[in-house]
Amino acid sequence: MFAIIGGSGLSKLSSLDEERREVVRTPYGEPSGPLLFGQVGGKQVVFLARHGYGHSIPPHAVNYRANIWALKQAGAEGIVSVASVGGIRADLGPGMLAVPSQVLDYTWGRKATYFDGSDSKVVHIDFTEPYDAALRTRILRAAQAAGQPVLDGGVYATTQGPRLESAAEINRLERDGADMVGMTGMPEAALARELDIPYAAIAVVANHAAGRASSAGGIAMSDIEATLQEAMVRVRLVLEQLCAL
Ligand code: HPA
């Protein structure tokens, strides 16, 4: 069974025929909300809204450990994350979809490991390839089957948020090799790896990153919302294909 973690703009999965919800408690506290079980395209999936169903949990306050733990406990054999990003690379304009291949982590103060020493076990996971190759391929195939263009690859930089970045910070991220920037990619990907769950992401470009728009001025939240609303229609089509494949 697949798990889908929905980010900004995807706190509901309209194509999910919901069968039941489960409130899960974990040793790490409460997940962002109940797990929704149901079918997409005739296949069983479990869905969780990363920011809560009322979109009330900011990126730095998401209990990533509880979320991933709860999905593991529910029997998730793979996790597809949907995450909105700002596009740094010129060809990643608003509305574009990408399946990133690498991450950078600029977050701080988040509980980022299950192996924090409290049970005296020291574990170093391999994270050379942060995303699961087979799951990435499945998403790319699903996008193709759904007729939706997606960028194959790209470096996802995770910032702390909740504020957006300064133009200089985006320049730094680009020098570091980032193609897109979001606030939730880490520690989510690493925690999934720690629990040995294949994990991959669909990044949805909500806006040009700070200082990258051709027009002068800042980033309007209303534009982001409109872009995400339209783009999530396409993401849902990809997810339906993914479940059907
Ligand atoms: N920066 C960080 N996270 C984001 C952005 C951005 O520009 N857009 C959507 N999520």
Helix-strand layout with pairing:
Elements: E1 2-6, E2 17-22, E3 35-40, E4 43-49, H1 64-73, E5 78-87, E6 97-99, E7 102-105, H2 133-145, E8 151-152, E9 155-158, H3 167-175, E10 180-182, H4 185-194, E11 199-208, H5 221-244
Parallel strand pairs: 1-4, 1-5, 5-11, 6-8, 7-9, 9-10
Antiparallel strand pairs: 2-3, 3-4, 5-10, 6-11
Helix pairs in contact: 1-4, 2-5
The protein binds hypoxanthine.
Report what the structure shows:
With 245 residues, the chain is of the alpha/beta class. It has helices at 64-73, 133-145, 167-175, 185-194, 221-244, and strands spanning 2-6, 17-22, 35-40, 43-49, 78-87, 97-99, 102-105, 151-152, 155-158, 180-182, 199-208. Strands 1, 2, 3, 4, 5, 6, 7, 8, 9, 10 and 11 form an 11-stranded mixed β-sheet that branches. The protein is globular, with a radius of gyration of 17 Å. The model has no long low-confidence stretch (mean pLDDT 94). The structure holds hypoxanthine (HPA). Residues 84-86, 159, 164-165, 181-183, 206-207, 209 line the site of hypoxanthine (HPA). Its EC number is 2.4.2.44. Substrate binds at residues 183, 207-209. Residues 2-242 form the Nucleoside phosphorylase domain.
Approximate shape? globular
Mean pLDDT reading: 94
Number of strands: 11
Report the structural category: alpha/beta
How does the major sheet shape up?
Answer: 11 strands, mixed
Sheet-strand content, in percent, reads: 15-25%
Low-confidence stretches: none
Radius of gyration: 17 Å
User: Which sequence of SSEs, written as H and E, runs from N to C?
Assistant: EEEEHEEEHEEHEHEH
Query: What are the distinct ligands in this entry?
Result: hypoxanthine
Distance between the termini: 13 Å
How many DSSP helices? 5
Task: Name the helicity range.
Answer: 25-40%
